[in-house]
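Run DUF2637 domain-containing protein through structure prediction, thanks.
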Amino acid sequence: MANNRTGRGGCALVLLAVFGGLPLTMVLAAPAIAAHIVLGGAPTMLPYLREWQWAMIGSLLLALVLVRMVLDRKGRLRGRSVPPAKRWLGVLARAGLLLGVVNALALLQLTRSGRTDHVITGSIWPFVLDALAGIAVLVAIARWDRRPEPVTIEEIRAATTEADRALRRVRAENERVRRQAEQVQARLAKLRTPTTGPANGRAKGKPADRHSNGIDVGFHSLRICHRESYQCADTAHLAYQSAQSSVRTMSHLVRRARLAPRQWVPTGRAGRRARAELRAAAAHLTRSHDELRARVGEGLTMVRTLNSNTADLKHEIRDSCGRPGRLWFEALEERVAERRAHRTG
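Sure, done. The structure for DUF2637 domain-containing protein is below.
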């Protein structure tokens, strides 16, 4: 019973969509209706000719609106790289295609009905067919708009060169962050190593100086290490953000590049060579893009770890370096609070 009700509800929605769109279909078909009145309509229809001529203006506006609605924001015609003139000319051309299909079919149906006194002569199915044809055209326009544009081998090679350059920068940044994180981790480990007796070279409550193994954990060097870690994480995060922007831009080109070997190329030996070059370049770009994205993700993880260790180092300086460490910690917290208030204000 529930399935029957669901089926009837679905049919009702389909019928509502079809028949509710018939007035819009008749507006789209206004040029065909006006032509039918002039060419084959009965004299009683002539008084309505002016209304249908005015409706022809509405048909163009409606076609533009419908085409604009089905175009994707990042598609071929609405993408950021598309010039405004090309965008609107493309929308106008597709609106003309929609009007051409709907009106050609409508005029054919009206001509078959012969000389009539009314536009609708006993059946609305001709306009249902027009509506279905219009929907088919809009679906085709939407699908075409979402397909990536053909890419040239020159574009792929340029993008691959940029990806390899960005990958080298990210690898170097990852290595720098890794070394800094290891340095902070080593200092934290030495600070947290329990010491007993006077062999540690300092009395309780006094700033740390040096451990017996030669690693400097003094207050001054700890402050320098904290500042270097903070600056390293900050600059690395900016570099990774720039790389992420390149990855997002490159992702669209990678999608186009994967389809490149299937696009039209000349036949014969030259065509096979061109297709092979496209396939090889697309594979290289895909590998570089995937590795760049993985290295950026790895770097961002290391930056988060470095930030966590830097925060721990800050608290260890406060707890291990006596009064100078506490004063430094309080001044640092005040500066951080001021910067946060300035950003939010």
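Residues 1-18, 196-216 have pLDDT under 50 and may be disordered.
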